[in-house]
Each structure stands twice: as structure tokens, then as C-alpha cells.
């Protein structure tokens, strides 16, 4: 066996181990710093299974190729739902929903409002809303475009807001969280009252225990929304589909709009680097509704891409 073949086989087994680690991280229930941070990179680790199959097939090492193929099969199984979508057709009134993290007051307000106008957004949730950003967005025409709002601006990352084309009632701010968390009820024509939440749990780098606790307490809050009406949740969850702590949100009546529509891995962060965004931590969740399509939207000056979803309520 030549040194080159040995090196190739070692590389193949290393790729298998990387993919197997990705599978383990996807299912990991542990609220520990290393697995939680590493879980954000699961899709990239899973690509190791493809590399392994190609290497071992080229070497005619069929046992290695079989192991790689088995791990690849598991990788496809856990990632495929994001690309396949749901077959159920919607039947209720349509609503365009957007979610955006503004990077304090870094996002270009005029460009942002232009995007919302072009996409005909009717319901908006934002994170990292500062008083300066609130004033700038109003001056750029956001309040004219979406005249009803429930906002709680704050310093740096704490601020959160909801804007709506339709009247908002029952506005509330949920206490006991590091960042501001909001709820309201939008009176949407043809759908009646719709529960709306704008959420922003802390990132795990702030403290994994706090992150996991906030995710769980916020999940309990949205699950208590009236079951006889649709609900829309927009937020920077600081979690991807490969975090078990986030997937618990999808075990009840809420569904992820991107998964419903088969939009795939919608990477939203970081959007202010020379390379493309790597992870998808912004989400729009729905209960009593279905997303027909979800897309990412660049926001000049922000470190997140926005999400825009076309939703059919009451379906």
C-alpha cells in the first residue's frame, strides 16, 4: 500500500467521522457550549459523507464506501425535509410576512423600506431595534407603509418591534428575558384575529444555559396563544434546524415556514462578511397557516439577511 493510498484512506475515514459527528450533533440534547455551537455547522460536517464515498469509491475500498453511504443516507434523511416541503394546499387569505435583524441602527432604513414596499409586506417583525433606527425607519416611510406598530426599542441588541398593515390589539411585552420579546393580535381581513410574536432569545455565546432556558420559555408562551386562530412568530432564534432545542418548537402546532415551502437551508447570518452567510438562525413559524414560499433578502448595512414569506392563513 502506497503512502498516497494510506493518506487517501485516512482522509476518507476522517470525512466519515466528521459526518458522523454532524449526525450526533443534530440529535444532541445537551445544553453544553461546544455541542451547541458546533451544531450550527452540521450541514457542512454532513458533506464529509459525500467526500468519503467518492474517496473510497476511487480507491475501490468498498467497505469504506458502504460506511460512507450509510452515513450519507442518514444525512439526507435529516436534511431532506427542508427541501421537500409539504404537499398540503392552502385555502385561506394570503399574508406576506417579513423578519429582519437590523444590527442596531446599521441597516439602511431607506433600502429596507424599499424592500418591504417591493415585496408588499403586510406584517413585519424586527430585532435589534434602537431608538435611532426607529426614528430613521419612520422618516424613510415605514410607518406610512405599515401604520400599526408595537415596538420596544432599546440599546444595541435589546430592541424588538412589530409593524402591521392591519390594526394591532392586545399588545404585550414578555418580562424576564435579556432581550425584548413582544406579542400582539393583528386583525387581518378575511382571517380575523391573528396572534403575532416578535422574539429574540439570547445567542448561546451569551450563556448556553440562558439561551436554552429562553428558547423553552418562549416556546411555552407561543404555545399558549389561542388555538382557534392563526399565529405568526418571527424572530432571530439564534438557533438552526440542527439544534434539537429549536426543533422542539416544531413538535406542537407550529411549523417552520421554510420547511413547509421546501425552501432549503436559508442562511441568514453573517451577512456582512466577504463570504456568504453560513447559518440560518432567523425563522418564521406558523400555526393555522401554510407558507407557499420563503426567500432571503439582503439588507445593506445589516449583518443578517431578512426573510420574506408568502403565507396562506387558516389552512
From TrEMBL:
It comes from the Bacteria. The chain crosses the membrane at residues 6-27, 34-56, 62-84. Gene3D superfamilies: Endonuclease/exonuclease/phosphatase. It holds the Pfam family Exo_endo_phos. The keyword Transmembrane helix applies. InterPro entries: Endo/exonu/phosph_ase_sf, Endo/exonuclease/phosphatase. This is Endonuclease/exonuclease/phosphatase family protein. It comes from Nocardia jiangsuensis.
